[in-house]
Design brief:
Number of strands: 6
Bound molecules: coenzyme A
Shape: elongated
Mean pLDDT: 85
GO cellular component, one term: cytoplasm
Low-confidence stretches: 97-102
Order of helices and strands: EEEHEHEHHE
Structural class: alpha+beta
Radius of gyration: 21 Å
Helix content: 25-40%
Pfam families: Acetyltransf_1
InterPro entries: Acyl_CoA_acyltransferase (IPR016181), GNAT_dom (IPR000182), NAA80 (IPR039840)
GO molecular function, one term: N-acetyltransferase activity
Largest sheet: 6 strands, mixed
Protein name: Similar to Naa80: N-alpha-acetyltransferase 80 (Drosophila melanogaster)
Length: 147
């Protein structure tokens, strides 16, 4: 494990060789949930059950942190995850836009304060909140396992 806090990475070591890796991040808007990515087993060691062992280890680890749901997105490895108890779900929003609301408000105020500005007005800021409202479209399959 790379550190005690999230995001963190777990590695699988066999005979002093790192042969597997998995990154775990919290999902800010879903309490007790995490997202796993970069799940990989060294190509020479695949199809021996080690990927499944890595997932088991990941599940055991997150349970110790009171995480009860694991989400992921995959393209092509659905069968592997199904075999390990994961099932298809709706895409989830991995970013919490609320975290940036205050700084954007501050920036808006700064640039609309006309008395102190000279020269042409700055271009309008992108409306990041429209991303929050828009439906997530993705070619990946989102999956979840409730522990
Ligand atoms: C996905 C991965 C981690 C699986 O590791 P592994 O050690 O081979 O997994 P296991 O041996 O525990 O399980 C293999 C099972 O997964 C499935 N599977 C694994 N890779 C697959 C593939 N490329 N296509 C279809 N099924 C696959 C098989 O159904 C197999 O089941 P079986 O044992 O009944 O034949 C590994 O193939 C890998 O590192 N792939 C490249 C990186 C990657 O795509 N990671 C997933 C990112 S979402």
């Amino acid at each position: 494990m790379s550190c005690d806090n999230f995001p963190t990475c777990l590695i699988l070591i066999i005979d002093n060789k790192v042969i597997g890796h998995c990154k775990i991040s919290l999902v800010p808007k879903l309490n007790g949930s995490c997202f796993i990515e970069s799940v990989v087993i060294d190509s020479e060691y695949r199809y021996r059950g080690l990927g499944s062992i890595l997932l088991r280890g990941t599940e055991d680890y997150v349970l110790t942190k009171n995480i009860k749901s694991i989400y992921l997105a995959t393209k092509g490895q659905e069968q592997f995850y199904q075999k390990n108890g994961y099932y298809n779900c709706e895409p989830i929003d991995l970013w919490d836009c609320r975290a940036v609301s205050k700084p954007i408000d501050v920036i808006r105020k700064k640039y609309t304060h006309k008395e102190k500005c000279s020269g042409p007005p700055p271009p309008p800021l992108p409306n990041l909140f429209s991303f929050k409202k828009s439906k997530i479209t993705t070619s990946k399959t989102y999956m979840v396992k409730h522990l």
